[in-house]
Amino acid sequence: MTRSDLTQPLLLPPRWETARLVIEDGRSPDVSSLHAIFSACAYVAPWDDTFREVPLADLVALVNRSQTAVGEDYRFKLQCVREKATGEIAGYFHVSHGAPEPHTVWISILVFHPDFQKQQYGRETIDGLCHQLLALGYEAIWLKVYLKNWPALRFWISNGFTKILKYEGDKTMTPSSYAAIRLERKLR
Questions:
Q1: What's the rounded Cα separation, in Å, for the pair 121 and 176?
Q2: What proportions of the chain, in percent to the nearest 5, are helix, strand and coil?
Q3: Of the candidates 160, 171, 157, 149, which has an alpha carbon nearest to the alpha carbon of residue 41?
Q4: Of 57, 106, 123, 172, which residue is least crowded by CB atoms under 10 Å?
């Protein structure tokens, strides 16, 4: 199905599956697990300040924002990634539908607990997400990755995010300098 007008974007279904995973909308009871997953990835913070310490209340707000679906927040969706075999939350992601362009989806975060990393769950999630978004009529996925975050760069590039849309950051290199690129993966 394709749509020429995505002013009211179609959203990911509340529950969908891949071979080994169940992906479903985040709910209030999931917040503690989501916070633990995010906190377990704090080792990335020196390379990517997205992973600085965040209060539990911030994740509560994100889950609530995803559940309320009003106004511009209608475009925002947080989904948990669970292992089918155990039901345990392995990771989560959040996206904005139809933003920053009408036919694109913006991935603002994809994170897996270290215990679930290096098992191809990230690749399986991205492949499933691409399949879902293509069926909804989206044409591309965008995201931002910090250049100091080599593991993330390798992950995203190996998953088809190979077009650089924009560079942003400091003009000089220092230990605290910031640099990131916006990447795109076409779905068609």
A1: 31
A2: 35, 30, 35
A3: 149
A4: 172
Q: How far is CA 1 from CA 26, 70, 129, 131, 136, in A?
A: 26, 24, 16, 12, 6
Helix (H, G, I), strand (E, B) or coil at 1: coil
Q: Which two tokens stand for residue 33?
A: 């697990």
pTM: 0.91
Q: For the CA atoms of 9, 187, 126, 64, what is the dihedral angle to 10 degrees? A: -10
What is the tens place of the pLDDT at every residue in 105-161? 999 999 999 999 999 999 999 999 999 999 999 999 999 999 999 999 999 999 999
Q: Which amino acid belongs to residue 188?
A: R
